[in-house]
Amino acid sequence: MQNIISVKDILEVEIIDMNHRGQGVAKVEGFVIFADNVMIGDRVKLEVIEVKKNYAVAKVLEILTTSPYKVKPECPYFWECGGCQLMHMDYDKQLEYKRDLVASEIRRSLPQAEFHIKDTIGMAYPYRYRNKGSFPVVREKGRVSIGAYKLTSHDIVDLESCIIQHPIADKVINVFRDLMVALRLEPYDEIKHTGLVKHLMVRTNTRNEAMLIIVMAKNKFLYKSEIIAKLLEEIPELSSIIMNVNDRQTNVILGNKNKILYGTPFLKDWIFDLEFAISPQSFFQVNSQQTEALYLKALEFANIDETTTVYDLFCGIGTISLAAAKKAKHVFGIESVKEAIVDANDNAKRNGIQNIDFHCGKAEDVFPKLYQQGYTADVVILDPPRKGCEKPVLETIIEMEPERVVYVSCNPTTLARDLKVLVYGGYEIKEVQPVDMFPHGVHVETVVCLHKKSM
Ligand SMILES: C[S@@+](CC[C@H](N)C(=O)[O-])C[C@H]1O[C@@H](n2cnc3c(N)ncnc32)[C@H](O)[C@@H]1O
Questions:
Q1: Domain check: are 248 and 378 in the same one?
Q2: How many domains are contained in the chain?
Q3: For residue 103, what are the contacts with CB-CB under 8 A and spacing of at least 6?
Q4: Candidates 314, 380, 389: which one to mutate for ligand 1, based on the most atoms within 8 Å of Cβ?
């Protein structure tokens, strides 16, 4: 069958929806068209640039009528930077969009299921919330550029400020850029394999301290003492400076080798009344304020008391595990990254918590083994990466039959896929709570409460 749309067609359409990547969605006789830089509610003139079997991609030629949800982005780099996708959308509408996205993914996977989805928990001030920033360092058009990748290419937007990052991150990129220019320190060139500096990573905490990780292509640091002295003079908030060596040619930012140039090998941060030490490689939620909102919901759904045994799968450095252990009889945490488990054990000690065992390994291997050895639980909390859970994790939950399952997810598509397995395995969805951990970005975090169905 021939498509009703061809490349170079000019169309006048209304943007009726946004997809999970923040692209506008229009339809012509049911055929879907995606376009960047438009907003739900815009009426636009588009030129079709690509046609696939089930959809087309178009570029905007003109906005004919502006959406009522459109606002002026607070960030001057928004239109070229790939960091945020929704800053041109009214914040209340962003929260609604995220709730609808989660609801439609679950409905698509489980059309028969009845569930209650709450309004997205948003932020009163949805800026300056990130506690971690990674900034590529390159030489572009003869200049040292430090910033973020552009929306449509591997080029860099040279940033002076990033309004979703902690202000210390702004200081770091500006001071470091000036130092590189003054000392003629060369960025790494990924084609010629010359130069040294690849990336800056800045982690900040809720007490205004920061860790700077300087990623180098080789185990070599020119002008080390001058650079450290100037950084500390200009940015007294730095509590540690780490050199990380990454000699691989991949998209992974950090290499395996860390060398402490100044201060401690970790950054401390606090969630509720718990203290955590975070190593450069460890996962820590990027929005500290919303993390507390997220964990409070997860703990409310888990409904833990001193008789409850809990599994915390994909536990990272033990943040949810330790908060749960303060109320529970016992907690088992499982995590695949070795450094995170070292941190988790250290964090348990730091907080004087003993009713917890951390296991290092893949949840899909360790969880079924522990269950076969007789370690069961009343509640399973799981917080997997974007790809969701492997089958053995879900199958073990279904066999173990904990009364409650709390699924924390950063990807509605894999969440919906995994919920289907749990619902078919005898669980019912009690409540779905989206939480906005990433204002102005397309990602959304969701906590789902599931109960074992009574027979
Ligand atoms: C979204 S994070 C959640 C961490 C933690 N719950 C928190 O809130 O900070 C997912 C974690 O799963 C870990 N991970 C990834 N794949 C895993 C697997 N197959 N088995 C166990 N852990 C895994 C990652 O290293 C990461 O720490």
A1: no
A2: 3
A3: 117, 432
A4: 314
Domain-located, residue 210 = yes
Rg from Cα positions in the chain? 24
Q: Is the CB of 319 under 6 A from ligand 1?
A: yes
Query: From atom 6 of ligand 1, which residue's Cα is the shortest distance away?
Result: 315
pLDDT in tens, 396-447: 999 999 999 999 999 999 999 999 999 999 999 999 999 999 999 999 999 9
Is 449 noted as a catalytic residue in this protein? no
Domain that holds residue 60: 10-65
pLDDT for residue 351:
97
Q: Of the residues 236, 271, 306, which one is the last residue of a structural domain?
A: 271
Judge if 324 and 444 occupy the same domain: yes
CA-CA distance, 428 to 274, in Å (whole number)?
A: 32
Q: How far, in Å, is the centroid of ligand 1 from the Cα of 382?
A: 9
Give the Å distance between the CA of 126 and the centre of ligand 1: 25
Distance 386 CA to ligand 1 centre (A): 10
**How much is the average pLDDT of 274-281?**
91
Cβ of 338 below 6 Å from ligand 1: no
Q: Is 322 helix (H, G, I), strand (E, B) or coil?
A: helix
257 and 372 in one domain? no
Q: Residue 2: what pLDDT?
A: 61
CA of 296 to the centre of ligand 1 (A): 19
Which residues neighbour 125 within 8 Å (Cβ) at sequence distance 6 or greater? Answer: none
Domain presence at residue 202? yes
